[in-house]
Design goal:
Structural class: alpha/beta
Order of helices and strands: EEEHEHEHEEHEHEHEHEEHE
Distance between the termini: 11 Å
Largest sheet: 7 strands, mixed
């Protein structure tokens, strides 16, 4: 795949000086509490954060625990909140879980490690979502999107479209893997011919909906099928397509988003992170694995045969890294 770097100035429209905390005044149970730091994109993204909120809320209703959630303005902002939570005494026989809602918060965990916060106090635990390495002393959950991204590429190929990946950042391993898989599905013989638009070299690429909207006139003049693996940033593209209703096609992300661009959305890549969260919170499932990963990882995957015999014997996706560069 070809990587094209767009340099977008990060403009902070709203400066928040502290985390906003929301929770029940009288939780049903006082022996179990869950604290959830929403990823900086916030609720209302009609995608990743909203579907996690549904999962954690369902778990809270099912298991009757107190749920508190925080809306930080940046990943760095949650650090003092977690430190305060760790310093609060934990009554004997009670449990408290702090859920970091995205891999953005890796910086928070590493700061805690530097401060000597681990091992955690008795009765306290931390879980981070969408983190795929096993090098942190916290529980993690991740859903690998390679198979769904590959199928989305196959859709673009079957419709004979000119596709492009809109990636928030290729420094995120999950984004890089999804981009690779889509490119292979879109053109198994020449996956490097598919353009990948990288919005940022960091996680700010997931929060640039307005910037992507302004980029759309240029993008839609060159491509007519889009795979926007960019979190809430994709909302900018969906809005542009609603406003101008051109002959383009786009893939929805994380949940069924067909109502966001009803005339242009050909399919949605659904990641049931909400179900994964509920499963991890159900004690009947046994001890919580340290780093459970859901979804297909690429081993044993073979592209569809084309005109060249033997194309299905290609190496598994996990060992392919052809023509990749993070920035043009």
């Amino acid at each position: 795949m070809r990587s094209i770097k767009y340099i977008i100035p990060a403009i902070l429209l709203t400066i928040l000086t502290g985390c906003t905390k929301t929770g029940p005044d009288n939780p049903v149970r006082d022996d179990v509490t869950v604290h959830w730091a929403i990823s900086p994109g916030g609720l209302g993204d009609m995608g990743y954060n909203d579907i996690i909120f549904g999962g954690i809320s369902a778990a809270a209703n099912r298991y009757d625990f107190g749920l508190y959630y925080y809306r930080p303005g940046s990943a760095e902002e949650i650090y003092p909140t977690v430190k305060q939570w760790l310093s609060e005494p934990q009554a004997e026989g009670t449990r408290s879980l702090f859920v970091l809602g995205a891999s953005d918060y890796e910086v928070t965990v590493r700061e805690l490690m530097s401060d000597g916060a681990f091992p955690l106090p008795e009765g306290k635990d931390i879980m981070m979502l969408e983190y795929f390495a096993d090098d942190l002393p916290v529980h993690t959950i991740g859903i690998v999107a390679m198979s769904a991204a590959y199928l989305a590429g196959c859709v673009a190929d079957s419709l004979d479209r000119t596709p492009a990946v809109i990636a928030a950042t290729l420094s995120d391993p999950q984004s890089l893997a999804a981009a690779e898989a889509f490119c292979l599905g879109a053109d198994a013989e020449h996956p490097d011919s598919v353009d990948v638009i990288e919005l940022s070299d960091g996680y700010s690429g997931f929060y640039m909906a307005d910037s992507l909207y302004r980029m759309c006139p240029d993008l839609t003049a060159r491509y007519d099928f889009f795979f926007p693996y960019a979190g809430g940033t994709a909302l900018g593209m969906y809005r542009y397509m609603r406003d101008y209703n051109g002959p383009w096609m786009v893939v929805g992300m994380d949940m069924d988003q067909s109502d966001l661009a009803p005339d242009n959305m050909c399919c949605s890549m659904i990641k049931r992170i909400d179900r994964a969260v509920v499963l991890r919170m159900d004690s009947r499932n046994g001890p919580v694995p340290h780093t459970p990963r859901h979804g297909l990882h690429g081993q044993g995957h073979h592209p569809r045969p084309r005109e060249q015999p033997g194309i299905s014997q290609r190496e598994p996706l996990s060992r392919q890294r052809p023509h990749l560069c993070r920035r043009a």
